[in-house]
Design brief:
9 helices; four-stranded antiparallel sheet; about 300 residues; globular
C-alpha cells in the first residue's frame, strides 16, 4: 500500500515531501547520508558555481530574535570538484538536487551540464546572485535574464530544472510566470529576505558584508503568501521554503499550493530530527482528516 506521504515533483519520486534546503549542510556526501538517514525525502545541495569561491570573511552568520541572518558569499569548491560528491551521493538512495549559480546565462548552462553529467536528479537555479549588467542587482530581479537563464539551462540538460525565486522583487508572480514560460519544471519559493543586524556597543553592522539574508520563522507568513499567489499564477509544482519549523507550517504551505517543503533554519533549532517530526506530523494530519495522500491537500486553501 502506498504511503500517504509519497509524492512526485517533475517526475522525481519522493518518499515524503520534505527536502533539505540549499545552503544547509549540503556540502558533502557524508552530510547527505546523515540527512537522508534522518528522514529527508530529497536533498538540495549547497549552491555551486563554475569556479571555486572563498565567500565573504567572517562573521557570515548571526542569530537574531526572529531567525537567522547570513551573508556567505557563495563559498563552494567549484562544480568540477563538487562532481565527486554528487557521484557519491547517488549511492544514498534519495533524489539529489544540485543548486547551481552563475553570473550569466552561459555560466549557468556550463555548471548545469557538469552537474547533470555527474548524476544530479534535478537542478535548482539560484538566481539570487548578482549579474554584470546591473552592479549589485540579482539575476532573479530581471524577468528577461531569468528567461534567458532557464532557456539556456533547459537546452543544456535533460533533467528537471527548478528555479528558486528571490522575494526581493515588486511582483514575484511576474518572475514565476516568466520562469514557467521559459520551461522551468518547478518553482522554489522563496529565498531569503534582505536584512541586517547592527551591534549597539560597537555601533557597526555585525555581518562582514553588512547586508545579509533573513531566514527562519519571521519570514514564514511572507513566504506562505508568495506560494499562495504563485499557485494561482502558474501550473507547475511549487516547493515551499521559508520558516518551516514544524508539521503545521508544512501543512499550511501544502494548503497554499506547495507540493513539497524545504527545511533549512529549523535544523539549527531542532537538529536533523526535524525531517521525521514534520513527516510524521503531516502523516497524522492526513489520517485524521481522511486524506489518502499529501497531494490531495495541495492548494485546498484556494477553495475556501
Amino acid at each position: 500500500m502506498a504511503s500517504r506521504l509519497e509524492t512526485e515533483i517533475a517526475g522525481i519520486k519522493l518518499s515524503n515531501p520534505t527536502m533539505l534546503a540549499a545552503g544547509i549542510l549540503g556540502i558533502s556526501s557524508t552530510f547527505f547520508k546523515r540527512i537522508a538517514d534522518a528522514g529527508a525525502g530529497a536533498i538540495i545541495t549547497k549552491s555551486v558555481g563554475l569556479k571555486s569561491r572563498k565567500g565573504y570573511a567572517n562573521p557570515t552568520v548571526v542569530e537574531v530574535h526572529c531567525g537567522m541572518l547570513n551573508a556567505m558569499g557563495l563559498p563552494n569548491p567549484g562544480i568540477k570538484e563538487f562532481a565527486e560528491e554528487i557521484k557519491e551521493a547517488k549511492k544514498i538512495g534519495v533524489p539529489i538536487i544540485v543548486s547551481i549559480f552563475g553570473f550569466s546565462a552561459d555560466e549557468f548552462a556550463l555548471v548545469a551540464k557538469e552537474a547533470a553529467k555527474s548524476g544530479a536528479d534535478a537542478l535548482e537555479l539560484n538566481v539570487s546572485c548578482p549579474h554584470v549588467e546591473k552592479a549589485g542587482a540579482e539575476i532573479g530581479q530581471d524577468p528577461r535574464l531569468v528567461a534567458e537563464v532557464v532557456k539556456k539551462v533547459k537546452k543544456a540538460v535533460n533533467v528537471p530544472v527548478f528555479v528558486k525565486l528571490t522575494p526581493n522583487v515588486n511582483d514575484i508572480c511576474k518572475i514565476a510566470i516568466t520562469a514557467a514560460n521559459a520551461g522551468a519544471d518547478a518553482i522554489t519559493a522563496v529565498n531569503t529576505f534582505r536584512a541586517m543586524a547592527i551591534d549597539a556597543e560597537t555601533m557597526r553592522p555585525i555581518l562582514a558584508n553588512k547586508i545579509g539574508g533573513l531566514s527562519g520563522a519571521a519570514i514564514k507568513p511572507i513566504a506562505l503568501s508568495c506560494v499562495f499567489e504563485i499557485y494561482r499564477a502558474v501550473k507547475i509544482p511549487i516547493l515551499g521554503c521559508g520558516g518551516i519549523t514544524d508539521w503545521q507550517d508544512a501543512v499550511e504551505f501544502f494548503l497554499a499550493g506547495a507540493s513539497a517543503v524545504q527545511i533549512g533554519t529549523a535544523i539549527a533549532l531542532n537538529d536533523l530530527k526535524v525531517f521525521k517530526d514534520i513527516a510524521d506530523g503531516v502523516d497524522q494530519y492526513l489520517m485524521r482528516k481522511g486524506f489518502g495522500n499529501v497531494k490531495d491537500i495541495v492548494g485546498l486553501a484556494h477553495e475556501q
